[in-house]
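Subject: sequence -> structure tokens, single chain

Hey, anyone have a minute? Need the predicted structure for the following. Not urgent.
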Amino acid sequence: MAFEVRDEVWELIEPLLPAVEPAVTGRPRVPDRVAFNAIVFVLVTGIAWRHVPRELGCSGVTAWRRLRDWQAAGVWRRAHGGSLVASTPGC
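Reply:
Had a minute. Here:
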């Protein structure tokens, strides 16, 4: 399965994401772009979080948690307050 948000969209979102220190123990963190792709996949398709295909490289739970964390950090508010929507037709 190949699903990836266009580079132009990612370049607008990436600077808005909060910095996160890498964990010393546990599983490696899923890259932000992979999680973002999974979030957009859910929003575009309407699929349930629990049905996110593993081929996207991110579980639905991980994508949902990242969405929650980014919401709390104000990422979406800043993205919509900026020129993201106007400058990226058909992401």
